[in-house]
Predict the 3D structure of the following.
Amino acid sequence: METKTISTTIQVAQISELSVADRELIEHAMRQTDKSYAPYSRFNVGAAVRLVDGSIIVGCNQENAAFGVTMCAERSALFAAGASHPDIAVTSIAIAARDSNGFTTEPISPCGMCRQAMIETETRYRIPLRILLYGSAHTYIIEGITCLMPLSFESFM
Ligand SMILES: [Zn+2]
């Protein structure tokens, strides 16, 4: 028997250190929290994805009294991009969240289902997904979803 260690690399940056394109994507995610429907959690999450042609598609969490029906912001944006621009690759996603006290100080991280959807996005377009997790104190920059979900399930079709 042997032990294997899986490590991951995450860059931590101040918003001012990011490129104009990354800041723009985060600003779209932040604005999208205003459109979130979160009467149960009162936790508003916004996401924005950038396509390889530069266009930006947004999403936000949409809750439901039957909680299992609720859709996360990340998948909302990814699926909207897939529905409206199925042949244009997704290159990056930004995620921001706030509650009644304002935006989270630390970045929030996508749930397991959204991570799985991001894996499929990378597989579909054959481009590592740049993930920007916004927090008012700092932003995490993650190059590729496997950094957040090693040993993930992938189709071998
Ligand atoms: Zn999720």
About this structure: DSSP finds three helices and seven strands in the chain.
